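Chain A, query sequence.
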Amino acid sequence: MVPDVRSIPRPPAYILASSHYRYWSADKLYNHQTAPNPQPLMGILSIRSSRKFYRNAGLDLDSGDHRVISSMVLEAADLDTAPDQVFYFISAAPRFGKLLLKTESSWNELSAGQNFTQEQVEQNRLWYHHRASNTGFRGHDSFRFILSDVDSESLTQSFLISIRTVDRG
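Chain A, predicted structure.
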């Protein structure tokens, strides 16, 4: 018969400042942590938790306008990944405007299936342009994306764009 075994997580007090911690196991008959010459049922595991930061504040603009999407409103940071390796994969483009990426010589419209990086956001190269044909439009637009680095990806996220009607008379 297999003894009743339980895992006891014991993170140290500095766990919030550390990216690793260990745990040990014990059963009702034998405490593997304090016994002489312990023979643990489980080895020590280190768990790596990269510290991530994420900001998705959305954007406000007037109908027919364009505005930069800066790192003040859209930012993803991972301490072990460079900004040029943090990707936003677009799963749905805006419906009432265009998502534009500035290159050295031109503007490229981004659509579903394309991507941009956090580095490009930090360089103020990502813009939203509300279509002039929708002048007078009041409401919301958005684009959806999956955030990814070399090791993992997020669930689908939405970036909300609020559009105000402006009387230009």
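The first helix runs from residue 118 to 122. The chain has one helix and 13 strands.
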